[in-house]
Specification:
Elements lengths: L6 H4 L5 E2 L3 E4 L4 E4 L2 E2 L8 E4 L6 H7 L4 H9 L3 E4 L4 H6 L7 E2 L6 H7 L4 E2 L5 E4 L2 E4 L4 H13 L2 H11 L23 H12 L7 H7 L4 H12 L3 H19 L4 H7 L5 H12 L3 H8 L3
Helix pairs in contact: 6-7
Pfam family, one: HTH_18
GO molecular function: DNA-binding transcription factor activity; sequence-specific DNA binding
Keywords: Transcription, Transcription regulation
Length: 293
């Protein structure tokens, strides 16, 4: 891509590591870095990559970078994380009180370990006080385009999107989320209630009756449920129903109205608004996008 300037005129990109040579998969993959963190006195921008596998184990294996990231940020550097690289930035404490996005499949885990952050799971990109984060998978491209525009110009970004066939308009990962509910919280009562909701989503579930059936005071149940799942019971019921609706729409065996009625929704507008709120698309838009004609 030619813009009248070489890429080096805009950026000097370097791969930085704790050691000169990073060995992965038992040494089957070796990465040679340009500089070690000890050799970097100052930089404008640091991009923290994603972690593969067990994210908390990966975070601890990268603990050598924590103090370096903190010091660089204090010295004026900006920090961007890709996907679950947010776990590393969160571990430094730099995300406390700040908005953050990550891969939708890891939102519950991130919030469980770092409750001080302001998680916005639907976002593709967040920016606050010189710290950026992005959602999962290909949202890395959206983050790069966002940074490219900030440090160069809109003209350069548009040229890049055309050259690499990238979608500049995408700003939410809500439609990609597959809701499974957080079940690794250890509260057996809450887990039983979750399973009941998931197995009886077609019914009109009354929270008072739910508390009675599980022999617990409603206020206690609601408090424990919210603490464990990061959703109220009403929100959990709604998200469960919409997840079912998405799967039924993808099958393309029933009309949207049939799916709505089977999920105990009688108000078309209410169902449409709820679907839009959770997925970022209306039911018709979702069908157009995911059902092959």
């Amino acid at each position: 891509m030619q813009q009248g300037k070489n890429a080096d005129d805009f950026f000097k990109v370097q791969l930085v590591g704790f050691r000169k040579q990073i060995r992965l998969d038992g040494g089957s993959c070796i990465i040679e870095v340009d500089k070690t963190i000890a050799e970097v006195e100052y930089t404008d921008l640091i991009i923290v990559p994603a972690i593969w596998g067990d994210v908390m184990r990966g975070t601890q294996l990268n603990r050598h970078y924590f103090s370096w990231l903190i010091n660089q940020y204090k010295n004026g550097a900006e920090i961007a994380s890709y996907c679950v690289g947010a776990f590393i930035v969160a571990a430094t404490g730099l995300l406390n009180g700040k908005r953050c996005a990550t891969h939708w499949a890891y939102t519950n885990e991130l919030l469980a370990y770092y409750p001080e952050i302001k998680l916005v799971p639907e976002k593709i990109i967040t920016e606050q006080n010189g710290i950026y984060s992005s959602g999962g998978g290909t949202s890395y491209w959206n983050l790069l385009l966002y940074l490219l525009e900030k440090f160069t110009s809109r003209k350069v970004v548009i040229a890049a999107t055309k050259y690499f066939l990238l979608d500049l308009a995408r700003n939410s990962q809500s439609e990609f989320v597959m809701f499974k509910g957080q079940k690794e919280h250890g509260d057996k009562l809450v887990e039983k209630v979750q399973l009941y909701i998931e197995n009886n989503y077609q019914e009109k579930i009354n929270i008072e009756r739910l508390a009675t059936d599980f022999s617990v005071v409603r206020r206690t149940l609601e408090r424990r449920f919210s603490k464990a799942t990061k959703n109220t019971i009403a929100e959990y019921i709604q998200r469960t129903k919409i997840e079912v609706a998405k799967k039924e729409i993808e099958k393309d065996r029933k009309t949207i109205n049939e799916i709505m009625y089977e999920l105990d929704y009688a108000d078309k507008k209410a169902f449409k608004d709820l679907f839009l709120k959770i997925t970022g698309l209306t039911p018709i838009e979702y069908k157009r996008k995911y059902v092959r004609n």
